[in-house]
């Protein structure tokens, strides 16, 4: 009844305007690239220094110096360019990237995101996420609605250390599309047969309108 | 000009001492100075400060000197997929300062360009902002300072005896910035070419930022995650 990962990726693609630039985070968001139609003319940016990512390479085209920010081998489109990290983050921090799609651990009604550490348990580091959420024109978070233990990852207020304060525009989960407005999550769309009651975990539904 | 030419990594790295701060280019294992890192494994030094986006990975790259307990302080943006580093962070044998990647590259660029500090919204309202000056422009920003180092060890695809460099594909990443920010920049190249062979328009880093250069050898150019179109 909820969306599959592929359906989530397709939903994210519908949010992109033609001819825009997009940065896709590590993990779930990388799936988005495979569902972008050619005629949208999207330029995919990867913060390690490439604009114009195409996808995966064929065996004969693999190059150890041609990778994305997930350190995976890639191929590029005609019109692609390479640059150093400073220029790459200049594109991000200077407001030239139209959309970034990032994974998340928690998002709250106040538009904040947490996705880089769990104190005492796990530290991966923020990589480029803190720059992306503050610099991109539109910040989309793509994640499952509930954690493995069944707790909602959409909260009144984040409990984990923040990646960005008041920066999230839209959340796409397996249960629907939600827009934090500062005090609530506006339900933009619910997945297939998902009902509002299904968004409930141990708490109540007061965070949604 | 030829004063910059060294014969190999051992010679070019021999004055790196205990307590030195070293910037190391590369994104993951892409574009790392393999020869210089190997030379560091053979030097009897410790208490190093390493400034590098990732401190190597899975036993490769800078992990080689990490597991020799030569690093006491590290600046980086991402530690995921590096169990050796995670272990040293947990037992507190290494002090790691995590820096947002854009702030990391800008702090290094600033050092090379004579900029002492800059304001950025990146990190505002997070743990990164703790203890830092906050100033409101169009929105609140935090003050970040330039990041310098004694040495930079970087790798380029091509270089000439003056130190003009050309990087291949995404192997450029932090390397030109680090070359500008360090007191002594040591460059290893896959192809040492004649002066004038790299067209002036195509030089990614002018040689003024380079103090030492040598022809590297035995490059592995490891791939971390091989993903193929045919495998999908």
Automatic annotation (TrEMBL), chain A:
<dbReference type="InterPro" id="IPR004165">
    <property type="entry name" value="CoA_trans_fam_I"/>
</dbReference>
<dbReference type="Pfam" id="PF01144">
    <property type="entry name" value="CoA_trans"/>
</dbReference>
<dbReference type="GO" id="GO:0008410">
    <property type="term" value="F:CoA-transferase activity"/>
</dbReference>
<dbReference type="InterPro" id="IPR037171">
    <property type="entry name" value="NagB/RpiA_transferase-like"/>
</dbReference>
<comment type="similarity">
    <text>Belongs to the 3-oxoacid CoA-transferase subunit B family.</text>
</comment>
<protein>
    <submittedName>
        <fullName>Succinyl-CoA--3-ketoacid-CoA transferase</fullName>
    </submittedName>
</protein>
<dbReference type="InterPro" id="IPR012791">
    <property type="entry name" value="3-oxoacid_CoA-transf_B"/>
</dbReference>
<keyword id="KW-0808">Transferase</keyword>
TrEMBL record, chain B:
<keyword id="KW-0808">Transferase</keyword>
<protein>
    <submittedName>
        <fullName>Succinyl-CoA--3-ketoacid-CoA transferase</fullName>
    </submittedName>
</protein>
<dbReference type="InterPro" id="IPR012792">
    <property type="entry name" value="3-oxoacid_CoA-transf_A"/>
</dbReference>
<dbReference type="Pfam" id="PF01144">
    <property type="entry name" value="CoA_trans"/>
</dbReference>
<dbReference type="GO" id="GO:0008410">
    <property type="term" value="F:CoA-transferase activity"/>
</dbReference>
<dbReference type="InterPro" id="IPR004165">
    <property type="entry name" value="CoA_trans_fam_I"/>
</dbReference>
<dbReference type="InterPro" id="IPR037171">
    <property type="entry name" value="NagB/RpiA_transferase-like"/>
</dbReference>
């Amino acid at each position: 009844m909820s969306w599959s990962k592929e359906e989530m990726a397709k939903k994210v693609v519908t949010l992109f305007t033609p001819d825009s630039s997009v940065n896709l985070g590590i993990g779930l968001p990388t799936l988005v690239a495979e569902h972008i139609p050619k005629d949208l003319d999207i330029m995919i940016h990867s913060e390690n220094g490439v604009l114009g990512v195409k996808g995966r390479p064929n065996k004969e085209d693999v190059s150890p110096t041609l990778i994305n920010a997930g350190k995976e081998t890639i191929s590029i489109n005609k019109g692609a360019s390479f640059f150093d990290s400073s220029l790459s983050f200049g594109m991000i921090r200077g407001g030239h990237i139209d959309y970034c799609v990032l994974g998340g651990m928690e998002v709250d009604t106040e538009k904040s995101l947490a996705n880089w550490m769990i104190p005492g348990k796990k530290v991966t580091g923020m990589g480029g996420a803190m720059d992306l959420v503050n610099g991109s024109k539109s910040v989309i978070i793509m994640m499952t609605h509930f954690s493995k233990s069944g707790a909602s990852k959409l909260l009144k207020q984040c409990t984990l250390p923040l990646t960005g304060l008041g920066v999230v525009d839209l959340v796409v989960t397996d249960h629907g599309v939600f827009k934090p407005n500062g005090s609530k999550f506006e339900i933009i769309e619910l997945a297939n047969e998902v009902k509002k009651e299904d968004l409930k975990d141990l708490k109540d539904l007061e965070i949604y309108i | 000009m030829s004063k910059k030419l060294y014969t190999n990594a051992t010679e070019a790295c021999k004055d790196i001492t205990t307590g030195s701060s070293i910037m190391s280019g590369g994104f993951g294992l892409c574009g790392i100075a393999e020869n210089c890192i190997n030379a560091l494994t053979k030097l009897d030094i410790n208490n190093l400060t390493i400034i590098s986006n990732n401190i190597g990975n899975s036993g490769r790259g800078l992990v080689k000197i990490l597991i020799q307990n030569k690093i006491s302080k590290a600046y980086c943006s991402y530690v995921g997929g590096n169990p050796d580093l995670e272990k040293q962070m947990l037992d507190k044998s290494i002090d790691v300062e995590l820096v947002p990647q854009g702030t990391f590259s800008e702090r290094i660029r600033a050092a090379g360009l004579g900029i002492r500090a800059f304001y950025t919204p990146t990190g505002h309202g997070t743990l990164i902002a703790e203890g830092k000056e906050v100033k409101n422009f169009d929105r609140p920003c935090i003050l970040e300072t330039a990041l310098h180092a004694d040495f930079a060890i970087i790798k380029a695809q091509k270089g000439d005896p003056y130190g003009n460099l050309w990087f291949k594909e995404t192997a450029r990443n932090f390397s030109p910035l680090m070359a500008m920010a360090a007191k002594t920049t040591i460059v290893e190249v896959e192809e040492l070419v004649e002066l004038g062979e790299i067209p002036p328009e195509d030089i990614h880093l002018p040689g003024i930022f380079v103090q030492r250069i040598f022809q590297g050898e035995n490059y592995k150019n490891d791939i971390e995650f091989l993903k193929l179109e045919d495998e999908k």
